[in-house]
Design goal:
Length: about 220
């Protein structure tokens, strides 16, 4: 007797279909590429930056003594956007600069060939002012430690505060952000990717989490 074929009418489950190429490499859409998923879209990011701006103003009772220093590369446009939102409230522009931490990194001896990025300190400097460091993702805390060392060579601020768009945890140093757009628990095999519309290779703001395969495919590290 010939066995009936598998199928919806056979009474037996059909064998699983083999995974398609898009299951591994995505469809070209940033929301589905590889093993990634979008956790913050452009509207989420706008709301997060607006909230951070208001929290900074509330904590410091205005913007009079503030200086924002973005850590290249994405910390710089984020700092400018936060400053613009504060200016809309306060009626005056907050000084914004950039702070390259390359030569202060504790892994410089392991990877000595690095590209130096831009440092620009606003005209009135940072002495006796409140410096708000701005970065896109807070992870181990080592970049922020390097930033604090860099600030020490530039001046003596009254205080240093930290604002980040995403805090993904896994701290290796006792460093905590004062202002956080989104706390995003992740595993060490995942990679958080921040894309801003101002990036040459991006058209919209988005924060995505890349799984291990997706991170390897993009050349990133978990």
């Amino acid at each position: 007797m010939t066995a009936p074929p598998n199928g919806p009418d056979s009474g037996s489950p059909a064998p699983p279909s083999p995974p398609s190429r898009s299951d591994y490499f995505g469809t070209g859409d940033p929301a589905t590429t590889g093993l990634s998923r979008v956790v913050l879209d452009s509207r989420d990011i706008t709301r997060a930056l607006t909230r951070i701006a208001h929290e900074i103003l509330e904590r410091n009772k205005g913007s009079q003594d503030l200086v924002l220093l973005g850590i290249p590369s994405r910390g710089v446009p984020l700092a400018q956007r936060i400053a613009d939102k504060m200016a809309a409230v306060e009626g005056q522009q907050v000084p914004v600069g950039s702070l390259d931490v390359t030569m202060y990194r504790d892994d410089l001896r392991l990877k000595p060939a690095r590209t130096l990025l831009h440092t620009e300190i606003p005209g009135k400097g940072i002495d006796d002012l409140v410096v708000v460091l701005v970065d896109d993702v807070l992870f181990s805390g080592r970049t922020i430690r390097a930033a604090l060392d860099a600030i020490g060579d530039i001046g003596r601020p009254r205080a240093v505060q930290l604002a980040v768009l995403v805090d993904r945890g896994h701290r290796e140093l006792p460093i905590r952000a004062d202002f956080v757009g989104k706390n995003l628990p992740t595993s060490l095999i995942e990679r958080v990717q921040v894309s801003l519309a101002s990036d040459p290779d991006a058209s919209v703001d988005a924060v995505t989490i890349q799984g291990l395969a997706g991170a390897q495919r993009l050349g990133g590290t978990p």
